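The pair is set out directly below:
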Amino acid sequence: MTSMIRGLIKSNFKLIAVLIAIGMLFQGQVVAQDDPNEKYRIYDGGYHITSMKWANDSSRFVYQENNQQTGVHTGGVNNWHQYVVSNQQDIISDFWPLQPSLTTNQQQTLELLNISTPYVQTSFAFSSPNNRYIVYGAQNPRYAIGVADLQSPTGQHQILDEASELLAGGLGAFNDADNTAFEVFWSSDNDTFVTITNVPELSTRIHHVGNLGNLTSPPIIRNLTNEGMAIAGSAFYALELFDISSDGNLLLVKDQTNRFAVWNVSSATGTLIAAQGDVTGATFLTDQRIMFVDQAGLKHFHIPSSRIAVLNLNITSTLAAGGAYFSPNGRYVVTYNGGVGGPARLYLFEITGTNLALFRTDIRDVNILQAQNSHPVQNP
């Protein structure tokens, strides 16, 4: 009898151990399934994210937590992040890491917007790819846009026509629909830039500014919003701007009905791209080839042939509900989930593969592309 009881106890212990092991395994699976993209994740702080931008050399991705303060300076609140791709380090500070270094004298000469709050606040200044020019909010008239040539020994600059509604908006943040702000996109030839401004009383405004030269005379400004856009006989009111081509003539835009298009500035014509669901990010690889993220994945589009190929099925507009941000060299994409379905998270993917290299340099049929060309940047 005693031996029987001992046997039952021993059997029960084994059963309990098995149940515990199964429970632990199941728990591990639940945790893993909670975020299947965990190994790609570079931010999981839970705060709303704003002002996301890559460094011109694609070495760093910069963003700001909208927790206490926003803007170039945050008065000692370390909510600016720069994620360094090479060593996978996240560096925090209270100052926008991409802001050009300007002396007080330069700021005064260039008429850079500068406001005394509890701490000194200045306008964002967006550098051209070669770091020769900057675009910024001007001091006078308030919120007009200025462009300056940093190579000029005399501080050559132009304060652009405020009458065209080319405004810098507020100082708080950019790529954030809840704030009055502006963002600048530069062509890689450094001679053209496009601004998109969200001002509540004016709604969204897109301006195309070209022929900078040495800025001894005002550049050519076009208010694309006031000019109006129409594609296939239907009005196209662009609310989002994703990228500008290398020569500054083509834009990737999206309208209020989520139609996605390539807009030709010189001919004032557009081409709709057959995306699936919402497009949350796009970039030019060349002036004939783009990448974009929609509901069905990361895709490639060949403008002359209108052919589309899927590069990755997992990088979707659901994962990038708050935006997909491509590095200037086209090698990386950061997706922001916008806090949808949980905490705010950023994911960094490296887009690699022989087929990707092929369509960057070759004009053969893009249908040869496969759907397994994207790989994560592995985090430590």
Remarks:
- Confidence is low (pLDDT under 50) at residues 15-33, 357-376.
